[in-house]
DNA sequence: GCCCCAAACCTGTATGATATGTTTTCTTGA
DNA sequence: TCAAGAAAACATATCATACAGGTTTGGGGC
């Protein structure tokens, strides 16, 4: 909304009508929306228009659609967010460096929050990914996936879904640049040191020390950014 | 992408094909995409499917569409991002408080970057909004709009479009809660003090003092959040 | 060389048809 | 009486076609 309102066209109006319906009826995740035929009657437009509206909301993952079933309100999902970021990067309107600055800013906060708020299960999960990185240090791809899961778990443990949302939106970019950063760490020793950085973070979270956790996270990002710069990525 | 791949259906495939086209061809903002008819032939699906794909990308503001013209790659825009956030808030999957924590985190960084990187024109713009808030202190709606513009200008001056993107995505939520916070500031004196907080921030940016700017921003957010809590907003 | 207009092309919307998946209802058999 | 299963009602997925406007382009006239 906010900017959809001034958009011409029946489809935008239909999108607005649907989101408004969600708001007015106070619908939550899982609740069913009217069928396309209902909407067609209610808005006095063709099925085509209603369908494009539903489809658009589905593409943004604001609603779930599947054949035979009526659409339903979706659970919070990175959905569109990651597409926007990826679009920005692939069209060179956003640099990888800028993404990392945002990640650093946010993750210094999530890690501090995680140190304060994590449950024991969350702490164990975070520690698990740090360990898995160590154990698979010979397979970059696997290390990467655990790395991403590690940061995601920390965001989760911050207990603020908006942070999770944003961090996850960046994971696509991370996947496309991670290996490059890894390769600049020439020696195996350096690679192990980088992995151990995650261990430091995990321990600080488990110890419930937000200051220390934030410091380790900052150091980790500084090293990562340096690696990307060394690799010639702006 | 990233999660669209596993989605069944021709439309998702078409969306992927289009984004892939943008990537492979190295298209940038303003560049034209194939016509719907072209895509129809290329993908061997009906125009309906292609249209729904285009429309979805348009709803996310990854592409621009208008009658008679072929679609083009869009400039970076909050687009979908704000819709995701709003959806989260209206369906009560995100609390206003959580949004403010994220804003605080990010804006403490943008304000520091702004102090370091702002051009003179940007500094003047920021100062202008602070002044306009002071001059219109009797009209909450107007103060609010200048307040939002103030924070947006700071994000702009950080010279990292990702920050701008995120801050702007929150402006819808801000609009819906701002007045509530304002009302809890019972006396006119308190309201003026709150507005003066913006002046402090502006001056620190102009002075090029990132530390001070961040401190003022933190204080500003702490007061705002306190106001919302006093108003009973979780 | 310039202007104007028509043709070609494109998107926006509507309609109807068919295929297929899901839910509800009703029947039938134990 | 009740439960299993079939049929009907409902819903989305995709396709084909049509026509109304908006935009671009190329040609003709000057």
From TrEMBL, chains A, B:
InterPro entries for this protein: GntR_C, TF_FadR/GntR_C, Tscrpt_reg_HTH_GntR, WH-like_DNA-bd_sf, WH_DNA-bd_sf
Keyword list, A-Z: DNA-binding, Transcription, Transcription regulation
Cross-referenced SUPFAM superfamilies: GntR ligand-binding domain-like, Winged helix' DNA-binding domain
One term of GO molecular function: DNA binding
Record Pfam families: FCD (PF07729), GntR (PF00392)
Domain HTH gntR-type: 8-76
PROSITE patterns assigned to the protein according to its UniProt record, in alphabetical order: HTH_GNTR
This protein's name: Transcriptional regulator, GntR family
Naturally occurring in which organism (per UniProt): Mesorhizobium qingshengii
């Amino acid at each position: 909304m906010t900017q959809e309102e001034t958009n011409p066209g029946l489809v935008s109006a239909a999108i607005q009508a649907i989101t408004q319906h969600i708001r007015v009826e106070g619908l939550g995740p899982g609740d069913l929306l009217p069928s396309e035929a209902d909407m067609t009657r209610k808005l006095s437009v063709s099925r085509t228009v209603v369908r494009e509206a539903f489809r658009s909301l589905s593409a943004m993952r604001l609603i779930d659609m599947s054949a035979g079933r009526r659409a339903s309100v979706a659970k919070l999902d990175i959905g569109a967010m990651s597409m926007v970021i990826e679009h920005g990067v692939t069209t060179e309107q956003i640099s990888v460096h800028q993404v990392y600055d945002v990640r650093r800013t946010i993750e210094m906060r999530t890690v501090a929050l995680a140190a304060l708020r994590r449950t024991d299960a969350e702490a164990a999960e975070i520690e698990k990914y740090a360990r898995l990185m160590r154990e698979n240090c010979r397979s970059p791809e696997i290390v990467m996936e655990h790395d991403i899961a590690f940061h995601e778990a920390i965001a989760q443990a911050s207990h603020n879904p908006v942070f999770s949302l944003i961090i996850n939106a960046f994971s696509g970019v991370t996947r496309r640049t991670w290996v490059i950063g890894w390769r600049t760490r020439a020696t195996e020793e350096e690679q192990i040191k980088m992995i151990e950085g995650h261990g430091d973070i995990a321990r600080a979270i488990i110890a419930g020390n937000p200051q220390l956790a934030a410091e380790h996270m900052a150091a980790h990002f500084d090293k990562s950014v340096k690696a990307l710069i060394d690799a010639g990525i702006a």
